[in-house]
Amino acid sequence: MGSNHKQVWVKVNAPVDEGVADLVEALNMFPALMTTESSQGDEQSPAWVYFSFGREHWQELAEFTLGHLGPCLSDKLGDQVRVSICVTNSGVPQGELLVRPGAVSDTVDALRALARSGRSSSMSPSSNGMAAPATSTIDMVDPPIPAS
C-alpha cells in the first residue's frame, strides 16, 4: 500500500541478538544508515549486519560503503572485518558487514570513533545533508570466513 506522504528518517528500536547489539547500535550512529538484518554468529561463524544507506540510490550506498566505511575499517582492523555490497533476491542493493569471531568489540570501538569523526574531516556533511565519502581507495581481500 503506497503513500504520497513525504517520508522522513527515524531510528527504530528493534530486537537483535545480544552479541551484535552494540555493533548494530554503532552502525546506526551514521545518520543515513539503516540496519535491516543481523546475527551475532558463533565461535566459528562471523557476526553480520546488513544495512541500507541514503535515499535508496545504490550510488550513495556504494560511496559510503566502499569509499568510506570499508577503507576506514580495513585500516583499523585489517582482515577482522569485511565490508561489501550485495543485491537481495528482490533486486535491492544493501551493504554487508562481516566481523570475525572475537572482533566485535574492536569493530564497535572503530565504528563509534568513525561516526564521531564523521562530523569533522573524514566524512563531512555534503550540501544535500548526506555524508560525503572520504577520498581513498580500497583493496579488499575477502578474509577466509569459516563455513557454517
Structure write-up:
The protein is globular, with a radius of gyration of 15 Å. Residues 120-148 have low confidence and may be disordered. 28% of the residues lie in helices and 19% in strands. A four-stranded antiparallel β-sheet has the order 1-2-4-3, covered by helices on one side. Helix 1 (21-27) runs parallel beside helix 3 and helix 2 (58-77) packs across helix 3. The chain has a domain at 18-117: Gyrase A, domain 2 (2-Layer Sandwich). It has helices at 21-27, 58-77, 104-117; strands at 33-39, 47-53, 81-87, 93-99. The protein has 148 residues and is α+β, with helices and mostly antiparallel strands.
* Series of secondary-structure elements, N-terminal to C-terminal: HEEHEEH
Mean pLDDT: 80
CATH class of the domain at 18-117: Alpha Beta
Strand content: 15-25%
> Which secondary-structure class do the elements indicate?
alpha+beta
What is the number of beta strands?
4
Q: Give the CATH topology of the domain at 18-117.
A: Gyrase A, domain 2
How would you sum up the major sheet? 4 strands, antiparallel
Poorly predicted runs of 5 or more residues? 120-148
The CATH architecture of the domain at 18-117 comes to 2-Layer Sandwich
Radius of gyration, rounded?
Answer: 15 Å
